[in-house]
From TrEMBL, chain A:
GO cellular component: cytosol
SUPFAM superfamilies xrefs: CheW-like
Any one of the GO BP annotations: signal transduction
Localisation: Cytoplasm
Source organism of this protein record: Anaerobacterium chartisolvens
Sorted UniProt keywords: Cytoplasm
The CheW-like domain, residue ranges: 17-157
Protein name per its UniProtKB record: Chemotaxis protein CheW
Pfam family name, one: CheW
Family annotation (Gene3D superfamilies): CheA-289, Domain 4 (2.40.50.180), SH3 Domains (2.30.30.40)
TrEMBL record, chain B:
Any single biological process term in GO: chemotaxis
PROSITE patterns tied to this protein: CHEW, HIS_KIN, HPT
Superkingdom field: Bacteria
Species of the source: Anaerobacterium chartisolvens
Name the UniProt record assigns to this protein: Chemotaxis protein CheA
Location (main, coarse): cytoplasm
Alphabetically ordered keywords of this record: ATP-binding, Chemotaxis, Cytoplasm, Kinase, Nucleotide-binding, Phosphoprotein, Transferase, Two-component regulatory system
Amino acid sequence: MSNTVENVMEMEEDTQKGRFLTFSLDRESFGIEIKYVTEIIGIQTITEIPELPEYVKGIINLRGKIIPVMDVRLRFKKQSREYNDRTCVIVVDINDISIGLIVDSVSEVLAIPEQDIVEPPKMNKGLSNRYIKMIAKVGNDVKLLLDCEKLLTGDELEDLGKVL
Amino acid sequence: MKYSNEPMLDMFIFETTQLIEQLETAILSSEKSNCYTQAAINEIFRIMHTIKGCSAMMLLDDISSLAHAIEDLFYFLREEKPQNVDCCTLSDLVLEGVDFVKVEMEKIKNGDAADGKAYSLIDNIKAFLAVLKHSNTSGAPADTKEHNSEKWHKNCVSREAAPPSAAINFFKAVIFFEEGCEMENIRAFEVVHNLKGIADEVYHIPENITDNSKSSEIIQREGFKLYITTHYPYEQLYELLMRTVLLKKLELTEAESRDDIPALSQAAHEMCARVSEDGSPGKGGNGQREADYAEAQHVSIHNSIISVNVNKLDRLMDRIGEMVIAEAMVVQNPDLKGMQMDNFQKAAWQLNKIVGEIQDMVMSIRMVPLADTFNKMHRIVRDMCRKLDKEVELEITGEETEVDKNIIEHISDPLMHLIRNSIDHGIEPPEERKAAGKPHSGRIALEARNAGSDVLIIVKDDGRGLNRERILTKARENDLLLKPEDDMSDREIFSLIFLAGFSTKDGVSEYSGRGVGLDVVTKNIEKVGGSVQVDSVMGRGTSITMKIPLTLAIIDGMNIQVGSARYTIPIISIMQSFRPAENDIITDPDGNEMVMLRGCCYPVLRLHEHFNVRTEITEFTKGIFIMVESEHKVLCIFADELLGQQQVVIKALPAYIRSSGKTRGLAGCTLLGDGSISLIVDIAGLAGLSEPG
């Protein structure tokens, strides 16, 4: 009995494994593991909250649920851009924390075979690619696969400590 | 309810816990009246039977065999109706059993194995039953005397067991006939006729069964109600009534005395018909209560109750919130602007009304009466009185007061500590009370009532009161005084007893003396945003008042606008709002702004500066001041404008934002009617910020 349950669990896991939701920021294309994603919505009215890091834009009302939203551009220290029709909020659920990621646009869901995924090259600077878990090759393109947990936990204090 | 993954086990735990609670109440009320009534015995028997069955199914052998033993005991009581039963021991035994099951339940909830052994308990129960059986079979008066000599607390178990000369039983029966059987009145008459053989007196509603055709309808609708006095026992009467042709349902309850009959005569003054001999209704004490009890039981069967996971209710509330917003989006849709649509408006109003009603209903679902929490205190009082050799009566009023489910969970513990404290410290031993000219037994009044958006829960005893000097001395010893003694009001001194580590008792007893209990009270009450207050008169008693908000989830709020952002201030903390004259505003050399109002100076907090919001309105004369108060600190908040008052549902800020720890001055957020988010200002936090240093 318990065996079958496990099998079912594995099966479910399998349908999500190796699948990534890809989105674009500037010219780069990023991928995020599909198991984290709960939904994709258009940009909403954001209520600002004072004294938060710049990249946390505030909170939105997602059908009665209040969730914070993070501008991924700002998170990656890119130039911010006006939000438009194509701007999307990807709602992800990471370790029971729901958060919305504001991205330029969402592309597609890709199944990337394991052999096409490689470790990111080690940079001398060390900290530049800490949000990137893996790099995937899809045709001629390269997708940067995000480490979602780091996205939330990598705190600014750490950065400051290294700058000083 | 995260007891286990197995829904069966969850269900079992839930049901058993409820049954155990019912059982406890039944035992305690029986103990109080010093008599196990037939109805109570039946109820306990039923509960034990259910527990036995369920726990056997869950393979909890100890619980099931314990329940079996108690069931046996009550089966004997029910069937044999022994005359002299030691109520105290009986209650003790059953309560011990209850405790055992409770402990086991707790273990199961925590995922431990229910490994408690009930052998000794079962043996005790069996021994008790054996004694009962023995005394019953011998049944001789000599035996009774023997028991008396042992100073057993004697009580008759049921009324049938009373001496034969007075063996008149009172019953209330409600008979329903099969639907569509027709000629209900004739059938009712037949019942009455049959009863003549065994009943002394029979009263029935409706009165006129043979001549009045309407009585058929009444019987059809409300059943045929009979009030019977007879020498025969319950069983025989039941059997006789069950023989009625086309009977659909029979409810036969036993009343203790004739009191039931006056109750009837009140309800249906002239409808009473006397079938047999005359007999004026007498007066008695317990009958009414018993009848009420039976009635309550009866009603509770019809008001079927289901229990719902609170999470589900929370989710339901979220959805309702969404619905409100969706409704606003449809009704106030910009596409509709300028259109003349009478029918649409009508429909929109209808929708608005329904949505509002649903919202109210969902809120009311979350409200739970305090009765259950209060009734638990009976047990504590009973146990402590036994142990400490004191006599205390617990008087409960206002238990129907309703409080949000989340808050109830926080009251139970403090209440228990307060009651314990009152019994242990407050109420004197009987001799001391006599010497002080007080009634023999102490009184603790537990009261709940609504006061605006708060609920007051008051625990009041008529004990010795607090000793001001002793509290001060103790506080001095433990270095708990923060102020010079002379500056302290009585209330402040009395409040010292709530500090951690404070106990005027020198020895540590089972119940108190460690100085932990009352500390828990304040902690818990503050957690739900309430406060505690003590009043006491030496020698006369102490009264402790807990003030608790009605609900955590909803507040009355004032919405204000600052730039493009909207904030909500709890109405409770707003004292007034005003527009100041230019010369009332003062700036000190440090740049701190203050405003003068009616001769007093108050600090000003610019909300747009504090929350870093861009706004056009920075001149004081253009915006508005809102004077708020929190814990005696007054602060004037400067905002652009007031938007209006609204009941808002408080939602916590997302965990991710809270964890950043930078939300000082914000208590949460809420959704406004148009779906946008408003931040709730934490006045206590802001008032703290404005303090120098």
